[in-house]
Amino acid sequence: MNALLLAAIISLAQAASAPVDPAPFSAMKPGEAMPTGWVPLTLPKVPAPQVALVADEGVTVLRSIAEAAAGTVTHPLGHDVPGRPMLRWRWKVDRVVEKADLATKAGDDFAARVYVFFDVPADSLSVGQRLKIFLARNLYGREVPTAALCYVWDNRHAPGTTRWNPYTDRVRTVVLRSGGAGAWAAESRDLEADFREAFGSGWSGPVPRVTGIAAGNDTDQTGERVTAWFGDFRLEKRP
Questions:
Q1: Of the candidates 152, 70, 145, the residue with the CA atom closest to the CA atom of residue 114
Q2: pTM value?
Q3: What is the predicted pLDDT for the residue at 11?
Q4: Regions of the chain where pLDDT drops below 50
Q5: What is the pLDDT of residues 6-53, one digit of tens each?
């Protein structure tokens, strides 16, 4: 899936007026509509995953089934990272995408993904990068993110592996899980540290505001079928 296109067509509210915390799935009942703030994102000419709120061990969670499909649910945010830099959530998958390969466009599929979008000022980018952002914003709106981290559940690479997305150097892919399907896994990521590791060579100021997050899965390249579940997302202080 073209991650630049994914980022480009997300319709995020202006960061200044967006909520500072993601709405919890657990506050809803299974089968209800998504909590306020969460919006399904589909891609042109690509089937969308089947997303729903379901019960799992007595808790309402998000389920996304992708069969030759791609998409996410997204939530705008207006979050200043230094105050609460830790992003925590839990997730699980029923299987990995066997034919995936994060180093290639043809293999850019994952059993589960979590995107975090940052509002990097466009004037800090190279001329070529600014041109791409300018064109994307003319097409899709001025809230198109300028940088993103993409946390993934991979099929073969060791946790801790990082790569630039094969479509763009504005999205850094970070492998958190590899294999091990079937059980819930809890994640805790320091967004400040992860952003600086990914983009630090070209960024010396404070970590930019987070303008949104997205969760989902995709198998549009490989044609496989996978199911992912996501628990609540929380932004917290460091311990």
A1: 152
A2: 0.87
A3: 42
A4: 1-16, 127, 131, 134-144
A5: 443 444 434 445 788 999 999 999 999 999 999 988 777 889 999 999
CA nearest to 214, candidates 146, 145, 120, 114: 114
What is the Cα Rg of the chain in Å? 17
Say which residues have a Cβ less than 8 Å from residue 237's Cβ, sequence separation at least 6: 83, 84, 85, 86
Tokens of residue 174, six digits: 């970070």
Find where tokens 């089947």 sit: 50
CATH of 3-236, one of 2.60.120.260, 3.40.50.300, 2.60.40.10, 2.40.40.10: 2.60.120.260
Q: Which helix (H) or strand (E) holds 28?
A: none
Please compute, for residue 29, the number of CA atoms within 13 A of its CA located in the half-sphere on the CB side.
1
Q: Of 112, 132, 223, 235, which Cα lies nearest the Cα of 173?
A: 112
State the Cα–Cα distance between residues 94 and 98, nearest whole angstrom.
Answer: 12
CA 229/CA 234 separation, integer angstroms = 16
* CA dist., res. 52 & res. 60, Å (int): 10
